[in-house]
Specification:
Elements: H1 2-22, E1 26-30, E2 36-40, H2 41-76
Length: 87
Amino acid sequence: MRFLNLLFWLVVVALLTSLAIENWRDVTINLWGNLQADIKIPVLLALMLLLGWLPAYVFYRARLWRLRKGEVARATVPAAPNEEEFE
């Protein structure tokens, strides 16, 4: 099963590499004012993928951190005393 997993990822990497090589052209991006930037298409696509993935990843990590922090807080809070102890 590990072989099939490795084979799958090798095929995906090979396809993405061939796609990047075939589309290695400059694209001009108009920024603000008269400022322009020339960037290769695969680099632009990778930056946009990262820009879309990063906020979701940060949200996920923050949520995990809050959950772990809550578990530590619950573990350090002593249990409420039973009513039988006061009788």
